[in-house]
Amino acid sequence: MQTKNSPSKETTNDELMEQIPKQEETKSGYASQLKKSKHHLRGVQTMFKNSSSNHQRLSMMADNKAFIMITVNSIIISIAIGLLIGKFVQNSALIFPTILLLGVCVVAIIYSVLATRPNIPKGTFSREQVENKTVNLLFFGSFYKMELKEFEYGIRQMMDDSEFLYGSLIKDIYWQGKILGRKFRLLRISYNVFMYGIAVSVAAYLAAAFFK
């Protein structure tokens, strides 16, 4: 009896010994997956944070460029009005170059102002939009006219739903990019008008001086 039972005990012990590494491998695999998911989540958070910071920095750069353009053209307009208009009686040939210069400066200022002029949405949202996850609660233009109770309801819904939360972050970055694209497009037009307009205006003044 003992000789028959002893092999079965040995077999059971061997099986137990074989199961221990498998259990350890399973635990280590779960730990690696958990670690990987944490790294992935941290990477996603870093991506959103860096994207938002870069967009804010670019927006400040665009506003500074627009301010420079407005300041420079305003100074040119002041100088042109103060110094040149009084000389129209003496030299009528300066009228066209001066009008051209003033027109260039005004157009450049208009495009610079359009680049910095804020475009604010209606500032309200509905509960249906919250349920359908179509509203971006991270942008003040979506809720600045709403009551605190409604805004808190939307925020809590977003906090409890990771898909809604990450979707809002994606929309926020997307619309920041759209606004930046509009700003830099208008600024490019303003700078092009200023650059080519100044060149043409100077050529017009030189022509007026030589052919008066």
Topology:
Elements (H helix, E strand, L loop, with lengths): L1 H83 L10 H22 L10 H6 L15 H12 L2 H49 L2
Helix pairs in contact: 1-2, 1-5, 2-5
Structure write-up:
- The chain is mainly alpha-helical.
- The protein has one domain (51-210).
- Helices cover 81% and strands 0% of the residues.
- It has helices at residues 2-84, 95-116, 127-132, 148-159, 162-210.
- The longest helix is centred in the N-terminal third of the chain and has 83 residues, at 2-84.
- The chain is elongated and about 75 Å long.
- The model is unreliable at 1-11 and 20-27 (pLDDT under 50).
State the helix count: 5
Contiguous uncertain segments of 5+ residues? 1-11, 20-27
The domain tally reads: 1
Radius of gyration: 34 Å
Query: What profile does the largest beta sheet have?
Result: none
Order of helices and strands: HHHHH
Shape annotation: elongated
Number of strands: 0
How far the N terminus sits from the C terminus, by CA atoms, comes to 131 Å
Quickly give the structural class.
mainly alpha
Helix content: over 70%
For the residues shown, what is the average pLDDT? 82
Our estimate of the beta-strand percent is under 5%
Keywords, separated by commas or semicolons:
212 residues
Compact description:
This protein is mainly α and 212 residues long. It contains five helices and no strands.
